[in-house]
Specification:
The protein has 273 residues and is of the alpha/beta class. The protein has 12 helices and 6 strands. Strands 3-2-1-4-5-6 form a 6-stranded mixed β-sheet, sandwiched between helices. A hairpin with a 2-residue loop joins strand 5 and strand 6.
Length: 273
């Protein structure tokens, strides 16, 4: 998706049509559309030919070719194709490459902050009838994702959680107490910001579902908004379309309690279990 966005930006800035670009790589304009939307893999020769057509300088050419090589690389999640739906695979790649992950959650603790027992309970609820083995495979995926917070190039995470997500009983009292303690530990990390949006916040955020915004270190890569649905997901990449979601998360950050108040909130909720 990111490579495709780069190629589209370069093509449009040069005033080149999709038909002309398709001709250069021995394909159709529909193939260019699929490439620019990130819906197909990249042949190095095709990317190189397009960059030549667009007159890209050597530095940018090298950067885009490297990005394309990374996009084609085997991701760890491909070893879990039996439990990772096709629509979720792009998110796993984006999450791994993001410099900043901002998310607003309403119903559950975000996956990057879940304990194994909490994750197991959530996954079991959402996959009734699934075998214990498949549930454990899904738990393993969720735990593997969390390495983005502990690797040497750890990502920054900024979470706003609705109070309801913390008070909703998942997996029983012991599971919830352990989950709240884990959140307390994670909130103490310098690269993690955890805020709670209390019931009495007074802000109007009705009808807003979970939202995740992924930001990348490359200055010319736009944010990607991820909106998960029941049986799929929407990826918003156009800059003008991502702005309302950026404004929403900024607003939620102001309405929520400051991160310094989070430990006390977690202790208070734990005391009710």
């Amino acid at each position: 998706m990111l490579v495709g966005a780069q190629l589209r930006r370069l093509r449009v800035s040069r005033g080149i049509t999709r038909q002309a670009a398709g001709y250069v790589i021995r394909g159709s304009d529909s193939k260019i559309t699929r490439l620019e939307l990130g819906r197909t893999g990249f042949k190095p020769r095709d990317v190189a030919d397009l960059l030549t057509l667009y007159g890209v300088d050597e530095a940018e050419r090298a950067a885009v070719l490297l990005l394309a090589e990374q996009a084609n690389a085997h991701g760890w999640w491909q070893d879990y194709r039996d439990v990772v739906p096709d629509w979720f695979e792009p998110y796993l790649g984006l999450e791994q490459d993001a410099a900043l992950i901002r998310t607003y959650e309403i119903q559950y603790v975000p996956g990057l902050l879940q304990t194994p027992d909490y994750a197991r309970a959530v996954i079991a609820q959402g996959h009734e009838g699934a075998s214990a083995e498949r549930i454990e495979r899904r738990v393993a995926v969720r735990m593997r994702r969390q390495q983005v917070l502990t690797s040497p190039t750890r990502r920054r995470l900024w979470v706003v959680m609705d109070e309801a997500a913390l008070r909703r009983q998942v997996g029983g009292g012991a599971t919830m107490r352990a989950q709240l303690e884990h959140l307390h530990q994670m909130a103490a990390l310098p690269h993690v910001i955890l805020q709670v949006l209390p019931f009495g916040s007074g802000g109007d955020v009705g009808g807003v579902g979970p939202v995740t915004i992924l930001r990348f270190s490359e200055a010319d890569l736009h944010d990607v908004v991820y909106l998960e649905q029941i049986a799929g997901a929407q990826y918003v990449t156009k800059e003008s379309d991502t702005l309302p979601y950026q404004h929403l998360l900024n607003q939620l950050g102001l309405l929520a309690q400051p991160s310094a108040a989070t430990p006390a909130i977690l202790r208070e909720i734990a005391g009710t279990l």
